[in-house]
Each structure stands twice: as C-alpha cells, then as structure tokens.
Write a structure and sequence with these properties.
Layout lengths: L3 E3 L8 E3 L5 H12 L2 H9 L4 H10 L2 H4 L4 H21 L9 H11 L7 H30 L1
C-alpha cells in the first residue's frame, strides 16, 4: 500500500504518490544532527547559555521528520541549511560557528538523491562525507583536549 496525498479539492482531484527520501539523503541529514552534538554538550557543561545551542540542534532534526515525503524533505533541508548557515556565521562570536558544517550537510542532503541526479548525487555524497569526517575529527580532538 502506498501513501497518497490529495492533489487538490473536489471529487475529480488526482492524488500524487509520496516518494520517500533516499537513504543517502536520510543518513546525511542524520549526520548533520549528530555532528555538533558532542561539542554542544561540552559547551553546555562549560556554562554557555543553553537556549541558542539547544534550539539550533533541535532545528537540525526537522528534515528527518519529513523523510517520508521527498519534496518536503528537500525543501526543509534547503531552507534550514541556508538559514542555519547564516545563523552560524552571524552568531560566530557566540559559539554558533560549530553548526556551519552541519548546515552545509543539510544542503548536501537535499541533492544526494541518485534516483534524480545520478552523477551529481555521488559527488554531493562524497562532499558530505568530507564535511562530516573532517569537522568530526576536529571536534573529537577539541573534546579530547578538554577532557584530558
């Protein structure tokens, strides 16, 4: 059984088949959520105000709620990716620059669907892997320095 959504009002309205986000897209969006979590917890323990950091991390989970509908998933990834990239740059002096790689990951997640974009999806997924691994290693190194 496939999920459908009415295309409009009236008795003759056609319905469109909902297409789920590709697993690559879901995993990249999940990486965007997980990447800043350890450093955010370290900052919270260090006494940084919780509201800005916690709300920002919670916003990264929004695209995952739309993963059953590819169009809404992609729209939420692009809108939140652009908004959070701006937020992370403008609030850099308040410690929000740590969210910039995750904002870029959300933008990558929007276009990592090999069903629609064959070659670009592979390139975007490779870029997303770099964006997740390099800052992740940096964040782990920072946390290791804080712990020891």
């Amino acid at each position: 059984m496939t999920a459908t959504e009415p295309a409009g009002r009236g008795s003759g309205a056609r319905s469109r088949r909902l297409r789920a986000a590709h697993p690559w897209q879901t995993r990249i969006a999940l990486a965007a959520l997980i990447l800043p979590a350890p450093i955010t917890l370290a900052l919270l323990v260090g006494g940084v105000p919780a509201f800005r950091l916690a709300v920002t991390v919670a916003l990264f989970s929004a695209p995952l709620a739309f993963r059953a509908d590819r169009a809404r998933f992609m729209t939420s990834c692009v809108v939140l990716g652009i908004a959070l990239a701006g937020w992370s740059i403008l609030g850099a002096w308040e410690g929000t620059l740590i969210f910039f790689p995750s904002a870029l990951l959300l933008l990558c997640a929007a276009f990592a669907d090999p069903r629609e974009y064959q070659a670009p999806a592979t390139a975007v997924t490779a870029l997303a892997c770099l964006l997740a691994v390099v800052p992740g290693l940096f964040f782990v190194g920072c946390l290791a320095g804080l712990v020891f």
